Amino acid sequence: MKTRKRLRVRVKRSIFVLAFALVLVAGMTLAGGCGAKKPVIDSLDPQQGPVGTQVVINGSGFGKTQGEGTVTFGDKGADVVAWTDTKVTVKVPLELAAAPQGVTVLTEQGESNQVDFTVEEGAPPAPDRKEGEVESNTPAQTMLDYMKKNNIDTGGWIFSVVQVSEKDPDWKIDKASKSGQQSMYFLLYKDNGVWVVKDEGSALNRDEIKAKGAPSDLYEKPAPETQAQAFLDYLKARGIDPAGYSMTIWRDSIIDSNWEIGLVKKAGSPDQQLVLHKENGNWVAKGMGAYTYDELVAMGVPKDIAHPETEAQVIGAFIQQKEQGTDTSAWNLSVTKISKVDPDWEIVTGTNAQAGTMYFLLHWENGTWVVKSYGGDPIKPNSVPGQPSDLP
User: Fold this and answer.
1) What is the pLDDT of residue 10?
2) Segment 33-50, tens digit of pLDDT
3) What Cα–Cα distance (Å) separates residue 193 from each residue in 128, 137, 173, 188, 196?
4) How high is the mean pLDDT of the chain?
């Protein structure tokens, strides 16, 4: 009699578990069908100021990266300084008249609500720095100092030269790139032996460069073909309508800075990789699709960016396994060294406000990254079999 009772209890529990699973699957299906929401602006900080003022747009649904997103004041597009899902930092366009101007954010999900910014009379504000605060003997350190001062996470950025003035080599334009982030461009000037940030943004137009006193060859030369333009040229050459597509730079090669991998997105379609190569100063799209490691290497892509799976995915799963319940989204990860002896080996540094700094030694094996060693102390030489001699 007792055996039958236990059996009935088991059957009831099984039915309950099955019903719960069905409800969970239905809920996930409904949630997946909702799609991403349009951006929403909650507030502007500040709400008024002269042209050139730096404004933080607070809200939601902007997207983790800028992609094809734009910000408009009135009928003028604004230069983007930084972009996250909840905050977008921009500069008020210089061409605006003193009056209330409607601010909107446009992404591939649609246009946001409008919030007014009052443009006031007056000259553009002076840079929010004192002389020497963001100056250094090297351009890279100058750009890093500038990012820190503007509360931009400095991990994982790679710096490259866009153009050096032939008329005056003390002037140059450099680019900061980071996988999954909008590139930043810096107009730099060497003043008495130290580099100074004269201007920056997601793009630097002719009038801005000229207004800062830069030599004419930095703004009169035809602009080199950008990654975004190379992507559009690739689509148009194949008769593909570019509407609805967005592209962000996913991986930059440290071995050869002339190679990058872009991540192409379109609603309702699987993500694809875009292979980009710089030729004669211009970016060229070499192919788009879902490539394997071997296919990318066969195309000439350097090994350090030919891996389809990201280190963040593997390390996130590894942390979850080792530290049950740990919020992996709170970790900031950056590739700190790639072996030149064997690019299938690299070191990734992770920082967490609570856990501190962790070091991960990764190896590419059978189509995925594998964590070979980790800990709170820097990776030591010969810590695991097969570790290349140049790591760390």
Assistant:
1) 40
2) 445 688 999 999 999 999
3) 22, 7, 17, 12, 10
4) 79
Cβ contact 382:372 at 8 Å: no
CATH code for the domain in which residue 98 is found: 2.60.40.10
The number of folded domains in the chain is 4
Tens of pLDDT, residues 224-256: 567 887 888 888 888 888 888 888 777 778 778
DSSP 236: H
Is 386 within the bounds of a domain?
no
Structure token pair of residue 253: 């090669």
> Are the beta carbons of 280 and 258 closer than 8 angstroms?
no
Tokens encoding 259: 């190679």
Angstrom distance (rounded) from CA 80 to CA 105? 11
Domain contains 392:
no
Question: What is each CA distance from 112 to 10, 35, 247, in whole angstroms?
Answer: 52, 16, 21
| Residue 322 belongs to a domain | yes
Same domain, 293 and 333: no
Provide the domain limits for residue 112: 40-119
**297 and 317 both lie in a single domain:** no
Question: How many residues appear in the chain?
Answer: 392
Residues 295 and 231 in one domain: yes
The alpha carbon of residue 280 and the mean position of all alpha carbons in its chain are separated, in whole angstroms, by 25
Instruction: For residue 179, report the phi and psi dihedrals to the nearest 5 degrees.
Output: -55, 130
Which parts of the chain fold into alpha helices (H)?
A: 2-34, 139-149, 206-211, 227-237, 293-298, 311-322
Whole-number Å distance between alpha carbons of 149 and 134: 8
| 286/330 same-domain check | no
User: Which of 200, 218, 236 finishes a domain?
Assistant: 218
In a domain, 380, yes or no: no
pLDDT tens figures, 103-161: 999 988 889 999 999 999 877 665 544 433 444 568 888 888 888 888 888 887 878 78
Is the sign of the CA dihedral 106, 109, 110, 115 positive or negative?
A: negative
Which residues, including other chains, have CB under 8 Å from residue 136's CB and lie 6 or more apart? Answer: 142, 145, 194, 195
Provide, rounded to the nearest whole percent, the portion of the chain with pLDDT above 70.
82
Q: Which of 119, 143, 160 marks a domain boundary?
A: 119
